[in-house]
Amino acid sequence: MLEIYEGALPTYQIYQKWESQARNRNFGAFCVFTGIVREESGIDGLSFDIYEPLLNKWFSHWQEKVSHQGVILMMAHSFGDVKNGESSYMSAVLCAHRKFALEVYEEFIEDFKHNAPIWKYDLKGNERIYAFHRSHYLSGSGILS
Q: CA angle 139-143-145, nearest 5°?
């Protein structure tokens, strides 16, 4: 339920696969968030590094946290370069009813932004520049300490 892709995400294929899983489980709630890289400060795109063992641990913690509510989480993220206008992040909350799905939705996405072991770089020309001012301290990593 956690997928890592090199480069931009194939959003349509991911959406169709996840929606099919919601339908097959007879779920009534399927909340999807898609992050699109946008041009700002003259960047050509973003680039990402991921520490997969820690990301898997973080994601597993979230799955356990919400499983008692009948909620299933899905997530896809890019590693490497993603150009402006392309997608680097998708997540979905699947559940029988919208109430639990909507309760989890924002908290999960915000926690991802602050605690998932993914490091972001700006792409400018042929340079890959660590996005220090848009990054968050990741406990135990030594980054931004």
A: 70
Name the pTM for this structure. Answer: 0.89
Work out the angle at residue 138's Cα, subtended by the Cα atoms of residues 134 and 141, and round it to the nearest 5 degrees. 125
Q: Judge whether 79 and 6 are in contact, CB under 8 Å.
A: yes
pLDDT digits (tens, 9 = 90+) for 61-103: 999 999 999 999 999 999 999 999 999 999 999 999 988 888 8
| Residue 1 · residue 73 · CB < 8 Å | yes
Q: Contact 63/75 with Cβ under 8 angstroms?
A: no
Q: Spell out the SS3 assignment of 84-142.
A: CCCEEEEEEEEECCHHHHHHHHHHHHHHHHHHCCEEEEEEECCEEEECHHHCCCCCCCC
Q: Can you tell me which residue has the tokens 């909340």? A: 31
Average pLDDT of the residues in 119-141: 78
